UniProtKB/TrEMBL annotation:
This is Signal peptidase I. It comes from Cryobacterium sinapicolor. Its main location: membrane. One of its GO terms (molecular function) is signal peptidase activity. The chain crosses the membrane at residues 26-45.
Length: 248
């Protein structure tokens, strides 16, 4: 007689197959959960803490080079006040940038780029933003140039080691200027002073060359790529020490 209580070979194989399929399904499910959670965490970090940008122009040379990638701290200025010397990324206040043509991308590449941008690893909107160094805070009186070619903030002349000038030039600005920064705004300049369309050269725009603090996305912290250029971005706080509060 056959003992029907014992599993046959085919039953055992069927059970093992089901267990393997269930194991694979659970593994795939767990991978999807991990991916979604990682994506959500990355999205939250990118939205509230840090994100990546690339440098599209040479206006900040030699501090930043074209195609450098930087990490930006978005807590500044939301929670941390902006200081003179900070390198900041900001949205166009209006009229600083020429209109950009929309790029046509392969749908697959566009999808990948969208996902990378969502987690802060890509910056397709870099061309819609600008990056400069903060020179003047609200109320500051910023002038250039004194007989030594220096810029002054609230009557204190600055010695700026980060500035890049053409050979033979000593003035830190090609053109003289004398401005008082209005409330809620900044006066910003590129380190590559003779090749930067910064606050000096946007005085005919609606904002008259000043950048609303509300337009600031964050402070650039570090060069993240290429690895050979990995470094923290200095705010040169010693350059701006001793400057009195706003003159107004």
């Amino acid at each position: 007689m056959t003992d029907n209580s014992l599993p046959t070979r085919s039953n055992r194989l069927g059970t093992e197959t089901k267990r393997k399929k269930r194991g694979v399904a659970l593994f795939i499910r767990d991978l999807l959960v991990i991916f979604v959670v990682a994506l959500l965490i990355s999205f939250l970090i990118k939205t509230f803490l840090v994100r990546s940008f690339y440098i599209p122009s040479g206006s900040m040379e030699t501090t930043l080079l074209v195609n450098d990638r930087i990490i930006v701290n978005q807590l500044e200025p939301k929670l941390i006040p902006i200081e003179r010397g900070d390198v900041v990324v900001f949205r166009d206040p209006g009229g600083w940038l020429l209109p950009q043509e929309a790029l046509e991308q392969n749908p697959v590449i566009a999808t990948v780029d969208w996902v990378m941008a969502a987690v802060g690893l890509s910056a397709p909107d870099s061309n819609d933003h600008l990056i400069k160094r903060v020179i003047g805070l609200p109320g500051d009186h910023v002038t250039c140039c004194n007989p030594l070619g220096q810029m002054s903030v609230n009557d204190v002349p600055l010695s700026e080691p980060f500035v890049s000038l053409p050979a033979g030039e000593t003035n830190v600005s090609q053109d003289d200027f004398d401005v008082v920064v209005p409330d809620g705004s900044l006066w910003v300049m590129g380190d590559n002073r003779y090749n930067s369309k910064d606050s000096r050269y946007n005085t005919e725009t609606p904002g008259k060359g000043f950048v609303p603090i509300d337009n600031v996305v964050g402070r650039a912290l570090v060069i993240s790529w290429p690895t050979a250029r990995w470094s923290w971005l200095d705010d040169y706080s010693e350059v701006f020490q001793g400057i009195p509060a706003e003159t107004r």
